[in-house]
Amino acid sequence: MSLRIVGLNAFLPGFRLVHEFAQRNGHELVLVATLPDTSRYGASDPMVAGLPDTLNVLITRKLRTVAAPMIAALRPDVIISAAFPRLIPAEILEIPAYGAINCHPSPLPAGRGPTPQRLIYEGDERVGATVHRTAAEFDTGAILAQRIAPLPDDLNGSGLMQSWRTLLSECLDEAVPKLVAGDPGEPQDPANASDAPFFTDDERLLDLAEPSRVIRRKAAALNVTAPTAQLELDGTTHVITRTDPTTTHSTAPPGTVLEKHANGWTIQTADQPLRLTYG
Fold first, then answer.
1. pLDDT digit string (tens) for 136-193?
2. Could you tell me which residue ranges the Formyl transferase C-terminal domain spans (predicted)?
3. Within the chain, where are the H helices?
4. What is the pLDDT of residues 88-127, one digit of tens each?
5. Residue 265 or 50, more confident
């Protein structure tokens, strides 16, 4: 069964998730709706710069008065949002024949909100993904599919992004047939819900007095969509793009630079050295 799909995306990886799902399952992506400003996720170029020329694309902030009539005219079967930082009004949610779903990179109801990687920053050793029915409030709809996996071996922003891509792809392949079949999904338990607000400037600053695993986890979470992890060294603030374990052994105090590299340093943490790369 071929479905007519509308994608709501403001970040290129979110678009790719929906586009690849449609391609591998023989569905038609009839429209991609996005926002005029897509810099929130750290991309320097607008999302539309990375879209195929063959796609129908709508760029608007006016979801009720502009997006809703255009989407309705296309008679979609399903609407899929992924990395779309706006509440989707009822005027749009009521349009698709089978319903609207959202892709969220956390094990909901934990990690609701704009920064689901905060769960990892704060200590979760897992990466999670959920596809749920879209509701009136962010990330609250009934769950149709969910995946949870250990943190990737490549514990960096790119590694987390790849894990999310894999898990959300699996979730979409499970969730859309359930949606079409009329499965109501599993309601989220409010008792297990947690919010994931934006990182503060202070939270972006890495603390070399913490254990290496904590630093790696925090840096990876901070760098998922764009490098934002920071390190203060010798009076200068550097953006840290990667952290990697080393075979170097040292008992030096935390913060000691053990070796300088062309693009970073090997630095002692609370328990062992880390190779930090800056950009």
1. 999 999 999 999 999 999 999 999 999 999 999 999 999 999 999 999 999 999 999 9
2. 201-276
3. 12-25, 68-73, 90-93, 118-121, 157-180, 212-222
4. 999 999 999 999 999 999 999 999 999 999 999 999 999 9
5. 265
Alpha-carbon distances, residue 199 vs 128, 207, 277 (angstroms): 19, 15, 21
CB atoms within 10 A of CB 24: 11
What would the CATH number be for the domain defined by 202-278? Answer: 3.10.25.10
Residue 129 makes CB contacts below 8 A (sequence gap 6+) with 103, 104, 105, 106, 107, 146, 147, 148, 164, 167, 168, 170, 171
**Is residue 46 within 8 Å of residue 38, measured between CB atoms?**
yes
Average pLDDT over residues 261-275: 97
Q: Where are the domains of the chain?
A: 4-192, 202-278
Does residue 114 contact residue 135 with C-beta atoms inside 8 Å?
no
For residue 231, the cross-strand partners are 238
